[in-house]
Design a protein that fits this description.
Distance between the termini: 37 Å
CATH architecture of the largest domain: Orthogonal Bundle
Number of helices: 15
CATH topology of the largest domain: MetI-like fold
Strand content: under 5%
Mean pLDDT: 82
Length: 287
């Protein structure tokens, strides 16, 4: 207890000795305001009456306010359908990516077979190839499999993650060999070794990969734009530009659509903020 109190006093004294602490806080608050201001402006514009115009930017924040834009947009557009498509595709893509990358990383890390190192080098080389360079052959494959304009065509081509395999392989390499050998001697098969011993230890790495896979799938524009033809299958990154193009001279309706699309993401960030920060720090340390 005495040692803990000494550490607390030392931290307090260290804070007091920092002559730039107030300046750092002021700069941090200023940067936070700069980043959050566009979101606040979007929300205020979205509750303005339809067709509202102004010559003074400050009038966007003044009354009148109305929520009829949200009701009209939800009832008369496909915004909720696009929101569901994005959520469904991102969730299934994340689950399949975690499952496949974990199995591949475990095989490369713990199993013995020929050309293991060569396969791992191919995963490393995969990080050097930009995704745009694979779009044409990927489109041809999906087209020949008759998966264009379908959920399968949206999800399956996106579940390959060389970065996820590399991160998990590095993590699995760090599992103590004593645990692996003891489980093997006790008759534990590779599959039981994977899901009962190694996988539970990899929760931080799995969480980090899952977060970034979900965000990447949610924000993906190019592949859904090329592989989807029906408006009912659009995801938000594709549907919103199409919707906004119909209101090129207006502000309120496009901002309302963007607000509806942004609110679930903002709420999810507030709920999973700690996990997201841990995931970023984890990938940074492992990299």
């Amino acid at each position: 207890m005495a040692e803990n109190s000494r550490k607390k006093r030392a931290k307090i004294l260290e804070k007091k000795r920092d002559p730039f602490r107030s300046l750092k806080i002021a700069i941090g608050l200023g940067v936070a305001v700069i980043f959050i201001f566009p979101i606040i402006w979007m929300l205020f514009v979205s509750i303005k009456p339809d067709g509202f115009t102004t010559t003074n930017p400050f009038e966007w924040f003044a009354p009148p306010y109305t929520f009829s834009n949200y009701i009209d947009l939800i009832m008369n557009s496909l915004i909720l359908k696009w929101l569901w498509n994005s959520l469904f595709v991102a969730t299934i893509t994340t689950i399949l990516t975690l499952f496949i990358t974990a199995l591949a990383a475990f095989a490369i890390s713990q199993m013995k077979f020929r050309f293991k190192n060569t396969i791992y080098i191919f995963f490393l080389l995969g990080l050097m190839i930009p995704g745009e360079a694979t779009i044409i052959p990927l489109y041809e494959i999906v087209k020949n499999l008759n998966m264009i304009d379908s959920y399968a065509g949206l999800i399956l081509p996106m579940i390959a993650s060389p970065l996820g395999v590399i991160i998990l392989k590095s993590f699995f390499d760090g599992v103590p060999q004593e645990i692996i050998e003891s489980a093997t001697i006790d008759g534990c098969s590779y599959f039981k070794l994977f899901y009962k011993i190694v996988l539970p230890l990899a929760k931080p790495a799995m969480a980090a990969i899952g977060i970034f896979t979900f965000i990447g799938s949610w924000n993906n524009f190019l592949w859904p734009y090329l592989s989807i033809l029906s408006e009912t299958l659009y995801t938000l990154p594709v549907g919103l530009p199409v919707f906004n193009s119909n209101y090129s001279q207006a502000y309120v309706e496009p901002m309302t659509a963007n607000a509806i699309a942004s609110i679930p993401v903002i709420v999810a960030f507030l709920i999973f903020e700690k996990q997201i920060v841990k995931g970023i720090s984890f990938t940074g340390i492992k990299g």
